[in-house]
Amino acid sequence: MKICACVTSKQWLEAELQKLLVIQKENSQLKELLQTSAQANMSAMAAQILAVDTSNSRQVVVLNKGKRDGVYVGQPILDAKGVMGQIVDVGPLTSTVLLISDSKSAVPVRNNRTGERAILIGTNDIERLFLINLPKTSSIHPGDVLVTSGLDHRYPEGYPVGKVEQVSSIPGEDFVKVKVSPVALLNRNRLVLLIWPDKEQEQLTVQINKRLNAKEMM
Question: Is residue 217 assigned to a domain?
Answer without folding.
Answer: no
